């Protein structure tokens, strides 16, 4: 294999150079004529037709935009603390960020994935993966809030995730970084012998959406990169790209690019269920956290889980097959019929398209090239349906329309390429600005794509927007795919790095949107429903303040008897019962973020006063004409003072 080293280094360098040349040569032209403008114009007061959910990448959050306007509607806090919404700061939400590594206030969120019923998005939940500390979060689309986060054990770099099956039976998680399992203090030189990957199947409750790890599959120590579930005829299978079949443990940019082909792993999860039912799963001791937010208690709980069931493919014939795939594949996409599996070979000169039918036939005929750790490797020629030739440089991700066309993002040549699933010929191409990663079509990874728009999610914007110092925004570009030729309609900046986005018809979500929480359903331990129930209770050095907020005052708004070093917990219930009337809460000197309390909700704010004196608190959200008056005072006395607890109602 030695002789490959130099050529591939050269190819890599060439690719980098070409990408720079492409980026610099791209003219600033865009199809943004008045026709394009009218297509994205949503008049003031009117709703957009679609929601799009974008990952925030290293912001750890998810953002919600309207399409076609590109208007930012909301940032949903997921893996990162968010002071605006007190996410990860309030006592109720802190448990959501617990992991086996302790409280982790950040992650790298990549792939939003909408729940599906019958292969169509159903508007119930959206999942997203945390790449750094392996986690999957579930967001409830009734509230646009994160309601569950599950950590993935025996994993590192949860990248090929969460990608769902057609009825949201499962979401999955694959290790991007193989590690020793169980993880232990061994030499990195022992990579080939001791490092393993895992692919985790997380069962999703059909009605409630609750996640539970069903089983893991122990895989050879490659880097599992992206995945998609089969659909229709291929329902029951999952496909995962992987690179670094070389099992290099350093200088991966060179050492993991030696082989001509890496793999797509095809996993038969219905078979896996049979093996689990037959008792083939081994219990591995481990530790991972499962955090759940209860909408009635307005509080999260965090539970440590201690074991996981693991299947070994060598002991489970028919569970996993490898499809040889050119050069470090990235994207792994399945067309709406479930027949074609498209690999995005980053360093490949073609786009390989596999046939599910041929794959089944090759398995039946045992057309195997070799075995890797008990996993049969299928013959490339026997499973390939076709190769898209001259697609451009750096194919990454592919999505589909309903008319038999595929659209692939080309990272290096900064373009979207449209090609036909009938003859694998390129039909059209359009430049994007610049260095596109994912692309996204509405329903483009489901059985029912919508043929209106494609979003290009670009890594680099260079000269597209007003300069903002050294860091420039990343961006989305909206492309009209309704006709034969693609047409650029709109650019808009994004928050963090929008690795991926998924979009859905607004009507699937709007009708279920919660407007406020009903006070009579509030089951928070410290809820307060009337001014008469407000109180301040000392328990040793802990003080609980049962407080209410309603336009335009807090009750109580005068509190005495707090001492330096006390742990003061303000449990604030917002008594409003109307849409869009939150109140805020903040105390001078508290080492936390404000609260933002939705109507009917109770949230808790922790404060440890460090100095004696008078300390004001106030509402941080401009809620009425008398918002500025929505304020109060707390008297803090020395630790040994005799001032008794008192408050006003
Ligand atoms: S990945 S482009 Cu997670 Cu392809 Cu980002
Ligand atoms: Cu309540 Cu401002």
Task: Explain what the structure shows.
By secondary structure, the chain is mainly beta. Helices cover 10% and strands 43% of the residues. The chain contains eight helices and 45 strands. The protein is globular, with a radius of gyration of 27 Å. The structure holds (dicuprio-$l^{3}-sulfanyl)-sulfanyl-copper (RUQ) and dinuclear copper ion. Dinuclear copper ion (CUA) binds next to loops.
How does the overall form come out from the CA principal axes?
A: globular
Counting helices, strands and paired strands, the structural category is: mainly beta
| End-to-end distance | 80 Å
Task: Average the pLDDT over all residues and give the rounded result.
Answer: 94
Number of discrete helical segments: 8
Task: Indicate the multimeric state.
Answer: single chain
* Main sheet attributes: strand count, strand direction, barrel closure: 10 strands, mixed
| Ligands, deduplicated | (dicuprio-$l^{3}-sulfanyl)-sulfanyl-copper, dinuclear copper ion
Q: Can you give the helix content as a percent range? A: under 10%
What's the gyration radius in Å? 27 Å
Please report the total strand number as a whole number.
45
Describe the structure concisely for a colleague.
With 649 residues, this protein is mainly beta. The chain contains 8 helices and 45 strands. Strands 6, 7, 8, 9, 10, 11, 12, 13, 17 and 18 form a 10-stranded mixed sheet that branches.
